[in-house]
Amino acid sequence: MQIPGHIDPVTTGTVPLRGGNRIDLVGLTRDGVRAALEEAGLDAKAAKLRAKQIWHWIYHRGVTDFDAMTDIAKAMRPWLTERFIVGRPTVVTAQVSNDGTRKWLLAAADGQEYEMVFIPDADRGTLCVSSQVGCTLNCRFCHTGTMRLVRNLSAGEIVGQVLLARDALGEWPKGTMASSADIEDEDDDAGHYTADGRMLTNIVMMGMGEPLYNFDEVKGALKIVMDGDGLALSKRRITLSTSGVVPMMARAGEEIGVNLAVSLHAVNKEVRDEIVPLNRKYGIEQLLEACAAYPGANNARRITFEYVMLKDKNDSDADARELVRLIKQYRLPAKVNLIPFNPWPGAPYECSSPERVRAFSNLIFEAGISAPIRTPRGRDIMAACGQLKSAATKPTRAELDRIAEEKQAALG
Ligand code: SAH
Ligand code: SF4
Q1: 118, 138, 325, 388: which is deepest, by most CB within 10 A?
Q2: Number of other CB atoms surrounding residue 364 within 10 Å
Q3: Which one-letter DSSP state was computed for residue 325?
Q4: Is 308 in the pocket of ligand 1 (CB under 6 A)?
Q5: CA 385 / ligand 1 centre spacing (Å)
Q6: 139 close to ligand 2 (CB < 6 Angstrom)
Q7: So what's the pLDDT on residue 94?
């Protein structure tokens, strides 16, 4: 699909199938699974029945081996195994932060690498999912934006992150927890790893990439995540974050329907043009109008404005007051998330002082708008917001500038 103002990700050739000639069923729609079975030779009725069974095993039970699908005739299982796989991304590295945050570096079948982060909290567990390898945009404060090589992740690669997280956390219904042994010091009956009291309760599309530049695959993946006979996560527990791809926002609301977060980060053109270069294409007014029109946003389901705190750049009292004024002018059901800037090697900004962040937050709260300060999570393993980057290279300042220029030129 052509998106206005879209910069096509760098293509990386055809992605080889993980299972050789076999088709990976992960990421196909329900109807896609049925069609694949029919194409492989099942008659329409059998394909429909088997698709329903297989769907349940893949997304409700977390099974990757057809032999474990016990309600499928024994004779049919080798037939399935010869033709299909239920894939997972390859784990390259898995790290645990001293605050309990976990980060995985994953590899796709073509070797492209991307990251996923799990953030446990007292009342929830949030999986931060990537939508692209790298990002075609180049927000100046974001590590991912300094990556050159980019491709979109497929729906299977996106939903595969959720499946893998469930594997690693050992939270498939009992009896199928093949990888629960990975979790140290947990005996099999540990209460919080059951299907009912799950650790993974929320998903945020806030990993690598701009999800609205990969609309179709992100939509396909989230539809699977929300499917009632599978992972069954409520749309109220899923948040999609965009840097402001205005032409796609209404469709995101209508066709996906999850919570919206918008990376605002600045309240005037000059600063936002500099730190979120997409602003030169879709300015603040346009963006806030699109927020006001976002389907499903109301006082019970507010739009989150993300605001990274950059020292002497966007953190003055006047900025806070202007933010309040804009939210009120556009009558937005909004809350503000203040994110202390997370540093990375070569970053051109510093984080505002804690006192400055507190003062900024207070000004917004005083105007009746919620503006909590986010506690950075997983900084020690470079897992915090904006620190993700899969290539281990450390480009020079000149190289970073060149990448920024290239991306800006592509944006037009
Ligand atoms: N591309 C999407 C989603 C991924 S980024 C977007 O930009 O919205 C998730 C959030 O982290 C965004 O709000 C992003 O602006 C913010 N972020 C990026 N780099 C950061 C950094 N170094 N410190 C703090 N937040 C950062
Ligand atoms: Fe891309 Fe989001 Fe990073 Fe901007 S903040 S470069 S849109 S991942």
Answers
A1: 388
A2: 23
A3: H
A4: yes
A5: 5
A6: yes
A7: 95
Tokens 């694949």 correspond to: 36
CA nearest neighbour of 298 among 245, 236, 365, 246: 236
Catalytic residues: 115, 385
pLDDT at 389 over 90: no
The DSSP annotation for 125-151 comes to EEEE--SEES-SS--TT-SGGG----E
Q: How confident is the model at residue 194 (pLDDT cuts 50, 70, 90)?
A: very low
- Find, among 339, 337, 342, the residue nearest to 387 by Cα: 342
CA torsion 386-391-396-401 (nearest 10°) is -60
Instruction: Give me 301's structure tokens.
Output: 């389901």
Residue 196 CA to ligand 1 center (angstroms) comes to 32
Rounded to two decimals, the pTM is 0.91
Which pair of structure tokens corresponds to residue 25?
Answer: 């069923």
366-380 b/e with 16+ CB inside 10 Å = b? eeebebebbebbbbe
- DSSP-assigned letter for residue 190: -
**What are the beta bridge partners of residue 120?**
125
